[in-house]
């Protein structure tokens, strides 16, 4: 029932958005070459699908995203578990993280391109940076909020450290980590597209730049639509993973 309601609301929302889009064009009397109407953009979307261009660029972007995002999540959670358990060490690292965190990954792009060249790696590095800090901070914060009673009981039963992490700490902190995962998905996807506009010759970001250079603003808008839809599906994929983990740990009914 929830899925049906969500789908219904999504359809209504998109209809409203497209209506407002068309009204802006009509009221503002914009030329199609400057502000493509929905019908023209739809034709551009169909053309990109039929000639296979969309799937080529989408596949490249998703591969880069998955590689950078998963690498960042694994490293950030691992470090977060360690730093959260050692307050003295986190006290030293925290100021460094707070200085680096607000810096846009794109600000590092001149160095990234110089160090790694043009291709997949610069985009992956940018995604890694974008996803790393939200997950790290959510993990450290969550570990520090774990009820000390659980830890004392585990200590009394002489539970080993790995079992302590697997059976007590990680299940207790996962809801907080999940928030970081959702934030990291949106942030990393945004900067993936930005990275592909700078240091790549393929992907959805490059598709937009190439269409702009060709003065095909309908394809630019089509690329924007693809990016938004793909970002929505990626966020929902993280939600599905979160629900699965919760069911495994008995926190949510199947």
Description:
The protein has 254 residues and is mainly alpha-helical. It has two domains: 1-30; 39-248, MetI-like fold. Helix content is 83%, strand content 0%. The protein has ten helices and no strands. It has helices spanning 2-28, 38-50, 53-85, 87-100, 109-116, 120-144, 148-156, 161-199, 204-213, 217-248. Helix 3 (53-85) runs antiparallel to helix 8 and helix 6 runs antiparallel to helix 8. It starts with a helix and ends in a 6-residue tail after the last helix.
Describe the structure using short key phrases:
MetI-like fold, 2 domains, 83% helix
Helix and strand arrangement:
Layout: H1 2-28, H2 38-50, H3 53-85, H4 87-100, H5 109-116, H6 120-144, H7 148-156, H8 161-199, H9 204-213, H10 217-248
Average pLDDT works out at 84
The CATH H-level superfamily of the largest domain is MetI-like
CA-to-CA gap between the ends? 14 Å
The tally of domains stands at: 2
Low-confidence stretches: none
Please count the beta strands (DSSP E, at least 2 residues each). 0
Oligomer type? single chain
Identify the overall geometry: globular
CATH topology of the largest domain: MetI-like fold
Which class of secondary structure composition applies to the elements?
mainly alpha
Question: Any guess at the CATH architecture of the largest domain?
Answer: Orthogonal Bundle
């Amino acid at each position: 029932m929830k899925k049906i309601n969500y789908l219904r609301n999504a359809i209504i929302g998109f209809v409203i958005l497209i209506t407002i889009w068309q009204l802006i064009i009509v009221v503002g009397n914009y030329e199609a070459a400057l502000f493509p109407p929905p019908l023209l953009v739809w034709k551009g979307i169909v053309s990109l699908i039929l000639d296979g261009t969309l799937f080529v660029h989408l596949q490249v972007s998703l591969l880069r995203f998955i590689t950078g995002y998963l690498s960042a999540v694994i490293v950030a959670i691992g470090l977060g578990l360690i730093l959260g358990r050692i307050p003295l060490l986190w006290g030293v690292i925290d100021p460094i993280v707070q200085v680096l965190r607000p810096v846009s990954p794109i600000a590092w792009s001149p160095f990234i391109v110089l160090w790694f060249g043009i291709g997949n790696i610069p985009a992956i590095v940018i995604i890694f940076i974008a996803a790393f800090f939200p997950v790290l901070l959510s993990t450290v914060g969550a570990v520090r909020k774990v009820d000390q009673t659980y830890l004392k009981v585990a200590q009394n039963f002489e539970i080993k450290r790995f079992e302590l992490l697997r059976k007590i700490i990680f299940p207790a902190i996962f809801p907080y980590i999940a928030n970081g995962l959702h934030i990291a998905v949106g942030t990393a996807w945004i900067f993936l597209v930005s990275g592909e506009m700078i240091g790549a010759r393929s992907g959805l970001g490059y598709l937009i730049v190439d269409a702009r250079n060709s003065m095909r603003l309908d394809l630019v808008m089509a690329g924007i639509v693809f990016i938004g839809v793909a970002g929505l599906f990626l966020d929902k994929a993280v939600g599905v993973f979160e629900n699965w983990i919760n069911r495994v740990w008995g926190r949510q009914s199947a």
